[in-house]
Amino acid sequence: MIKKAFFIAFVLFALSLIFSVSMLLFDSNRLQKRNVHSGSKAVHIFNYGWHTGLVIAVEDIPENYLPYFAMLKQHRFVEISWGDAKFYQYRRPGINWFLALRALLVPTSSVLHMVGFDMPVDHFYNWSRFYTIFLNDQEFRDLLTYISSYFETDENHKFVIVDRGLYGDSWFLKSKHKYVFPNTCNVWTARALKAAHLPLTPVIYQYSSFLIKVLERYSKKQAQHKNVRFVINGQF
Fold it and tell me: What letter would DSSP give residue 61?
């Protein structure tokens, strides 16, 4: 009985791996066909090893979306990402595996983490990789619409601040949506990019490395384009 259970689990794992790899190749090939300079709005995707998120320039944000970023609008850039409320706010050294498993297996409350900064993006992320895509006005607005749909408000229609953030001028804000597998932080980033009309299949990006692999290949195409700044390993 135990051997049969292990065999079934192995087969399911193998099938999911084959599906994921196939979809990664499919997404990567579709992304390669995208115009690398479809617009002038730069969106940066950062990678902290296990976690990804987005960076946008405050000056690019249309006026009707500025209220979502009001507490950080004095900065040049805003970093924004999403995660499980308890796991994301765990501030002790190391990973709390109980909270990690809880976040994956049980629907839990979530938060947005927003960071404002003024230094150049390549300086802010000089210790980690980040990638840049360029969006046109409509794609950028659709991206912001997706992001704004995650903000929770109170009875007075004000955004709910949970706590100060993890570094710099940053904040945790309450989010509307529940965190549970397969709706994870990296899937959130992939869904944001899909909302901006990038041809991605968000559910397969459970690992940050999957998303970064696809973006890295696309970045190599960008590097060959004379009108596009290539961003990889923190270098313009």
Answer: S
C-alpha 46 chain-centroid distance = 8
3-state helix, strand, coil in the chain (%, to 5): 45, 25, 35
Which segments of 67-107 does DSSP mark as H helices, in order?
85-88, 97-105
Rounded to an integer, the average pLDDT of 84-90 is 93
Separation between Cα atoms, residue 204 and residue 181, nearest integer Å: 11
Q: Which residue has the higher pLDDT, 4 or 123?
A: 123
Which amino acid is residue 74, in one-letter code?
Q
Q: Is 28 exposed, middle or buried (0-12, 13-18, 19+ CB in 10 A)?
A: middle
Provide the whole-model pTM: 0.86
Contacts of 20 (CB under 8 A, 6+ apart): 204, 210
Averaged pLDDT score across all residues of the chain: 86
169 backbone dihedrals φ, ψ, rounded to 5° = -85, 90
Residues in the chain: 236
